[in-house]
């Protein structure tokens, strides 16, 4: 688990976080927002005492949506949503395999359906058809839906010549105990939201849209701390209780785009991947019973940072540069050579960097009382060989944290740039 992550609370943006301003009421006493998209979904609005198809009207004196419910991410953007946004409170990861006999034509129709569903749900509207009403009372809640293609997708659709070299299978690592039934897949979808019902609503819609074209290969559920749960914005903690992600790349950094996204030209990647990124997805089980037997001091030696505030053991606060050469009174390095935070530093890995955007998971308790819990690790980079693979190989050679984690599933996906207005994700690949 490289020491990089997004802050738990996203950077405020007035258009996304401020409560919506009042809108003029209709003659019936309803506002467009209170109707939550009813008219747009059905073209029908009944009287004030009546009901409407699709999303029903809220009472006339309903409390306005909170800033969490009103948050909205855009679908038609340069880079797909769900990459640079902050951590979201609830997430679902799901992979599909195309059905037998389904090919390029069926895949294009599926991505067209999925894109339209994602666009509508992210706007706080009902699904285009057969909406389940799960999110009827909620706003968009910063919903994001992200689509990617696995290595096997290209052979199944006759598009092998368009498969990026960067999608070559990941190498084996010593900490891998991979379940192949929960790894890889032709198509991958990431769903995130700040409300659990909104996220599940999107998951159900995406699954239903797959129809006979694709079947679920695997699906995983995750969570993070809800934005606003802390007194002030701060880096998230993982299930080990550690501040996790101090050194994540920031969009404001001058080289952020180059390290995270595929450029529009001058690259070995196919043209359809312009403005896209590569996602590595790993289900990393944390051996919490073993970890929690360690003293706080011992845990800090494993990580290389203070547990209380995420500051390096060499002093300062969370953002203070770590002094890798500092020694104690006995001449020993203050930050051990095998400390996780030392090993994962970009300057210790030839500048390799990943944008981590994970979810924690807890899938119950084993018969022996062991929690099945850990991290749904999702990282983004322009080149997985220079990003994830470089860092994971270094971790494989002696990371102190390796004794307390186990990689149980894995996937690598090509995630194209955002869909153009009126278009769908992957259109340049499937219609090129």
UniProtKB/TrEMBL annotation:
InterPro entries: Dimeric_a/b-barrel, Dyp_perox_C, Dyp_perox_N, Dyp_peroxidase, EfeB/EfeN, TAT_signal. Residues 1-31 are annotated as: Disordered. Keywords: Heme, Iron, Lyase, Metal-binding, Oxidoreductase, Peroxidase, Signal. Residues 235-419 form the Dyp-type peroxidase C-terminal domain. Its cofactor is heme b. Residues 80-224 form the Dyp-type peroxidase N-terminal domain. Signal peptide: none annotated. Its EC number is 1.11.1.-. PROSITE patterns: DYP_PEROXIDASE, TAT. This is Deferrochelatase. It comes from Streptomyces antibioticus. The lineage of its organism: Bacteria, Bacillati, Actinomycetota, Actinomycetes, Kitasatosporales.
């Amino acid at each position: 688990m490289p020491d990089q992550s997004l802050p738990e609370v996203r950077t405020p943006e007035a258009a996304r976080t401020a409560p919506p301003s009042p809108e003029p009421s209709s003659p019936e006493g309803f506002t467009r927002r209170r109707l939550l998209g009813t008219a747009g979904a059905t073209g029908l609005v009944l009287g004030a005492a009546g009901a409407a198809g699709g999303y029903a009207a809220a009472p006339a004196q309903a409390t306005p949506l909170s800033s969490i419910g009103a948050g909205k991410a855009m679908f038609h953007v340069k880079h797909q949503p769900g990459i640079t946004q902050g951590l979201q409170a609830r997430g679902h990861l799901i992979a599909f395999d195309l059905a037998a006999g389904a090919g390029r034509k069926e895949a294009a129709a599926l991505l067209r359906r999925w894109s339209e569903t994602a666009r509508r749900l992210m706007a706080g509207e009902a699904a285009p058809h057969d909406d389940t009403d799960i999110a009827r009372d909620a706003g968009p809640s910063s919903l994001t839906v992200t689509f990617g293609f696995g290595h096997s997708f290209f052979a199944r659709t006759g598009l092998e010549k368009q498969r990026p070299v960067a999608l070559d299978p990941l190498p084996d690592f010593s900490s891998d105990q991979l379940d192949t039934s929960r790894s890889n897949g032709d198509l991958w979808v990431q769903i995130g939201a700040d409300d659990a019902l909104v996220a599940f609503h999107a998951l159900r819609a995406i699954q239903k849209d797959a129809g006979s074209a694709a079947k679920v290969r695997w699906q995983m559920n995750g969570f993070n701390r809800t934005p606003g749960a802390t007194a002030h914005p701060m880096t998230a903690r993982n299930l080990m209780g550690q501040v996790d992600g101090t050194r994540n790349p920031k969009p404001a950094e001058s080289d952020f785009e180059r390290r995270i996204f595929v450029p529009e030209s001058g690259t070995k990647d196919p043209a359809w991947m312009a403005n896209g990124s590569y996602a590595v997805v790993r289900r990393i089980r944390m051996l919490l019973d073993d970890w929690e037997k360690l003293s706080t001091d011992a845990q800090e030696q494993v990580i290389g940072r203070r547990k209380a505030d995420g500051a390096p053991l060499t002093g300062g606060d969370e953002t203070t540069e770590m002094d890798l050469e500092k020694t104690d009174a006995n001449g020993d390095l203050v930050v051990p050579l095998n400390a996780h935070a030392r090993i994962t530093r970009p300057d210790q890995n030839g500048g390799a960097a990943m944008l981590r955007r994970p979810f924690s998971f807890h899938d119950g308790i084993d018969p022996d009382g062991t929690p099945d819990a850990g991290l749904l690790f999702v990282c983004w980079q322009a080149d997985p060989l220079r990003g994830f693979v470089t860092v994971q190989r270094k971790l494989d050679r002696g990371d102190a944290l390796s004794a307390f984690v186990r990689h149980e599933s894995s996937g690598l996906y090509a995630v194209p740039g955002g869909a153009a207005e009126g278009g769908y994700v992957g259109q340049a690949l499937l219609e090129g």
